[in-house]
Amino acid sequence: QVHLVESGGGLVQAGGSLRLSCAASGTILTIPIMSWYRQAPGKQRELVAAMHSSGLTNYADSVKGRFTISRDNAKNTVYLQMNSLKPEDTAVYYCKSVASWGQGTQVTVSS
Predict the structure, then answer these.
(1) 98 close to 3: Cβ distance less than 8 angstroms
(2) Which of 59, 83, 105, 109 could potentially form a cystine with 9 if both were Cys, beta carbons 3.0 to 4.6 Å apart?
(3) Would you give the DSSP letter of residue 42?
(4) What is the DSSP string of 53-78?
């Protein structure tokens, strides 16, 4: 079971970009799916993007065309590139492997 640490969150204006990183304490080569979730205040945690080890990706409809998930197996790191950010993207973003969650990183988008 790997330990996950997210980074890269912050405050950005609407229309801006951020790149989140999720560093794993061990290899992610054997982890079939790595995912990003988010949770806004008063709302349930929701899937944002997922990436299979084969390279297949899946995105929430609300972020398609704006967010891109990628993984660097050599660095044991998963990324979430977020472009054209909107105030409704404001949330705590979490990285998830099969059995582990990171501690989350706050993303705030101002209008």
Answers:
(1) no
(2) 105
(3) T
(4) TTS-EEE-TTTTTTEEEEEETTTTEE
Give every CB contact of residue 35 below 8 A, 6+ residues apart in sequence.
Answer: 47, 48, 49, 50, 51, 95, 96, 97
Q: Tens of pLDDT along 28-79?
A: 888 899 999 999 999 999 999 999 999 999 999 999 999 999 999 999 999 9
Q: What is the CA radius of gyration of the chain?
A: 13
From 31, 51, 61, 47, select the one nearest 91 (Cα to Cα). Answer: 47
What is the full DSSP assignment across 18-62?
EEEEEEESS--TT-SEEEEEEE-TTS--EEEEEEETTS-EEE-TT
Report whether 6 contacts 103 (CB < 8 A).
Answer: yes
Q: Which residues pair with 74 in a beta bridge?
A: none
Compute the mean pLDDT over every residue in the chain, rounded to the nearest whole number. 96
Look up residue 77 and give its two tokens: 């790191």
* Res 1: pLDDT: 81
